[in-house]
Records
---
Amino acid sequence: MLQDHEIDYKVIGEEMQLVEIELDPQETVIAEAGSFMYMKDGIVMQTIFGDGSRKSEGDGLFGKLIGAGKRLLTGESLFMTAFTNTSMGKSQVAFASPYPGKIIPVNLMEHGGKIVCQKDTFLCAAKGVEVGIEFQRRLGTGLFGGEGFIMQKLEGDGMAFMHAGGHVMERTLNAGETLRIDTGCVVGYTKDIQYDIEMVRGVKNVLFGGEGMFYATLKGPGKVWLQTLPISRLAGRILQYAPQRGGSKEEGSLLGGLGRILDGDNR
């Protein structure tokens, strides 16, 4: 028997997607702060401490404080937002993706009740889904894993929605099959996938490859979700071309230097 709320949904859009969730009377969906887009009559919004799951509500105040502290480690807010349909009929609430990419609907019951995902990918879920923290236990992952060391876990038997940047690819790995990936390109994976960090081989690759010193290795069996545009990569490119100290947008280039001379800026 399902324990989490059952929700219907519709993903709308292409590059900047939103998910519209239809709630029956007294059904609730939880979401990260800042993802809300719109809601129709009958939907009531409430800020909650914790994720609204059965485990969170049964832990008492101390347990909720521990859970909130763990959320801080993933860079998320102490609070989540719950949207409940208090009307007598169906009503809808929608959540938008924070940057260009795709929304990934996942039915946790179909994936063994647990998915591990990057700390900034969770968008929203049916009430009852536990949004927790997942530490990678391997020493190499902890020392060098970067984005993949502290991750989120989604546990339950309801629907959850992740967001990824750019195009999303699903890969199913057979037992023993290994996939080597840039750590930022990993969106999430099912519970039986083994996650580890491997050092790039070859001095020239490390010094001149431009791809970093480490990559993630995912070993099957299980399913993996990958993204082509991690938010860290997008942010890095934006900063690279952003003006410095009020300079022109070609600040770091030869053209930018010539432009500053012509403009009389000798900084």
---
Amino acid sequence: MEKYQKILAIVDPTTDDQKALKRAIELAQKTNASITAFLSIYDFSYEMTTMLSGDEREAMRQSVINDRKQWLESLLAELDLSGLSVDCKVIWHNRPFEQIISQVLNHGFDIVIKGTHQHDKLKSVIFTPTDWHLLRKCPCPVLLVKEHLWPDNGNILAAINIGSEEEEHKALNDKITAEAKQLTKVMNANLHLVNSFPGTPVNIAIEIPEFNANDYNLSMLKHHQGVMLEHASAFNVPEENTHIKEGLPEDVIQSVAEEIDAELVILGTVGRTGISAALIGNTAEHVIDRLNCDVLALKPDGYISPLDIEK
């Protein structure tokens, strides 16, 4: 897949099981991409040693960086990297997401791959502030890795907003589907499309007694099915691989992903800030939180990261 030629794999300093790095290797073996294993570290105690000079504090920081780099190199030495170009980079910084996005902006990475944390007692995934910042602000695709394997002939689920008339959403639907289509070739997988639609507003059903909720829902379903089939046809996706259900996006996407045992869900994040950030907060983040497979989050074309601003 030509577009994923430079992979930034985020290393987790708290574990030896580097899910993101392993997934990056798996993808690079299929695409012949280069990988940079990236680790951002910080320890506030090193900044508090006021008895030391600036040079001495810098020497201490450099010592920690060197130690972490050796650890990272030993991790890489245990992995099968035959035929792959892999380098590693360790940076001292207290806001990892800023450094990750800076790497993307300055070195042209095509995709960021990051592992997620499992909460042992709750059996759910815990997302860190770094995860959310990347989803909102990283200009390139972000792949969040969970425990699900990528088997041959598996299923990729592209979540689209087929009911929207907004050009931004239509363009993002096309981008999501095209990206999913390319990944099915790389991963030898099957492509499925999913879309949800809202049911009858409760207040209408109450305030207008003669309003027929069943007819309304059926009409909504038929409309979304028609638009979905038109979209699927443009990308040669068979009708049996399209899924339209009534409900909240997070419920529908989770339900279909489990039903087809998806290995990867691809969705769009508008990535806005301020009040309109609710668009991602209400949909994409809730969806990602509940899935047990990898998630690839894409930005619309023309998206500019808030960090990509000349100071």
